[in-house]
Amino acid sequence: MATIVTRSGKGSALTHTEMDNNVTNLNTDKIESVSQDTAPSLGGDLNSGNFVVSDLKLQDYKEVIHSLGTTDAPSIDVANGNVQSVSITSALALPAFTNAETGQSVTLIVVGTGTASGTGSHKFAGGNKTLTTESIISIFYDGATYWTSIATDFQA
């Protein structure tokens, strides 16, 4: 890096030649890219403050619907996504999630009539466990309980 000539005593100005040399040194010895700085130092904590992105838009976002096929006892793996579908023949036995973590939720689209039961600490909103031809089951896992609600009777 360039060495800048300064005057230790106040009131003693740099000469024109000294000033020109400083400007030339600053211009020719500047870093052109970050990779040229072989010993960078961080002036603050990267974990503090906010990261701001201007005009961020989530465009064309679509949920992928993972099919569990036809089964009355599906395996709901949260690694397959938040929206899953299943066809049932007579009843639905809801399991605990595979790969479950606190705060996860799954929306289950159910085709078929019958009743739902839950293993793995399911609690049903209003005690409703009746499924109609088309039902939507929303399940939220808080780390201990599967909070489960069933919406039915969808009509055109």
Could you explain the architecture of this structure?
- The chain is mostly beta strands.
- It folds into 2 domains: 1-32, no CATH class; 65-151, Jelly Rolls, CATH 2.60.120.
- 8% of the residues lie in helices and 29% in strands.
- It has one helix at residues 16-28, and strands spanning 65-70, 83-87, 91-94, 105-111, 114-118, 122-124, 130-131, 134-141, 146-151.
- Strands 1-2-4-8-9-6 form a 6-stranded mixed sheet, with no helix packed on it.
- A hairpin with a 4-residue loop joins strand 8 (134-141) and strand 9 (146-151).
Task: Give the helix/strand layout.
Elements lengths: L15 H13 L36 E6 L12 E5 L3 E4 L10 E7 L2 E5 L3 E3 L5 E2 L2 E8 L4 E6 L5
Order of helices and strands: HEEEEEEEEE
Tell how many strands the DSSP assignment holds. Answer: 9
The domain tally reads 2
Helix content: under 10%
Q: What would you call the structural class? A: mainly beta
Instruction: Tell me the β content.
Output: 25-35%
Between the first and last Cα atoms, what is the distance in angstroms? 74 Å
Count of alpha/pi helices: 1
CATH fold title of the largest domain: Jelly Rolls
3D shape: rod-shaped
Q: Specify the CATH architecture of the largest domain.
A: Sandwich
What is the CATH class of the largest domain? Mainly Beta
Contiguous low-pLDDT stretches (5 residues minimum) are: none
Major beta sheet, specifics?
6 strands, mixed
